[in-house]
Amino acid sequence: MEKKFANIPVKDLNDNVFKQIGDDWMLITAGDQGNFNTMTASWGALGILWHLPVAFCFVRPHRYTFEFMEASDFYTLCFLEDQ
What are the extents of the domains in the chain? Predict the structure, then answer.
């Protein structure tokens, strides 16, 4: 079964990204279906740049995930709900 990404308009997001990134952390994943890596992170941002929505994070070159990000056109930032 093929899985697809869901497109969520950024203006539909109502979460506190300062809490999510800084306190709750996020997951950064890069790669493809057969070869990928995920890491936790508590640095990055969501915002508007030149009238466009942007998301960014910083990954040090010595982190294993870095090579996956460099080889990929896309990466994901995941925020999990409190349980």
Answer: 15-78
